[in-house]
């Protein structure tokens, strides 16, 4: 059996993955008062990508994991608990492509900015 070719992820897919990882981190933080580790984030990224038959090198998954950790902690540090719970819920809902949210779109824009700052190509 021939292995599937590795598909290079485009900027929008990386942005969506960063958003999803951030949502998962915030959700875990507000539900369990614990942060996911970088390794847990990288593994979670690999699981999501595999569902779409996509792959990303470990170094890139770790970068997205690190960025999502920084972003989630930044959000949690600037929001009240109630606002953080709302943000976490809204982000998790927005993982459904049929769910529309201006708040989530703003956070996706912020994910794009963070990726550009780290030199991830568009």
Structure description:
α2 crosses α3. The protein has one domain. The protein is built from 5 helices and no strands. The model has no long low-confidence stretch (mean pLDDT 90). The protein starts with 10 loop residues before the first helix and ends in a 5-residue tail after the last helix. It has 122 residues and is mainly alpha-helical. The longest helix is centred in the first third of the chain and has 22 residues, at 11-32. The chain is globular, with a radius of gyration of 14 Å.
Q: What is the chains' assembly state? A: single chain
How widely separated are the two ends? 33 Å
Q: What overall form do the CA principal axes indicate? A: globular
Low-confidence stretches: none
Helices and strands, in N-to-C order?
HHHHH
Strand content: under 5%
- Total number of helical segments? 5
Number of domains: 1
The helical percent reads over 70%
Number of strands: 0
Summing up helix and strand content along with how strands pair, one would put the structural category as mainly alpha
Over all CA atoms, what is the radius of gyration? 14 Å
Q: Average pLDDT across residues?
A: 90
């Amino acid at each position: 059996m021939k292995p599937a070719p590795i598909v290079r992820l485009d900027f929008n897919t990386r942005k969506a993955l960063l958003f999803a990882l951030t949502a998962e981190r915030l959700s875990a933080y507000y539900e369990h008062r614990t942060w996911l580790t970088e390794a847990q984030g990288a593994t979670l990224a690999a699981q999501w990508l595999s569902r779409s038959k996509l792959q990303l090198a470990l170094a890139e998954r770790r970068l997205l994991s690190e960025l999502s950790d920084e972003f989630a902690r930044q959000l949690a540090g600037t929001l009240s608990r109630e606002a953080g719970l709302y943000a976490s819920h809204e982000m998790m809902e927005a993982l459904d492509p049929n769910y529309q949210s201006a708040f989530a779109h703003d956070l996706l824009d912020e994910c794009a900015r963070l990726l550009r700052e780290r030199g991830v190509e568009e």
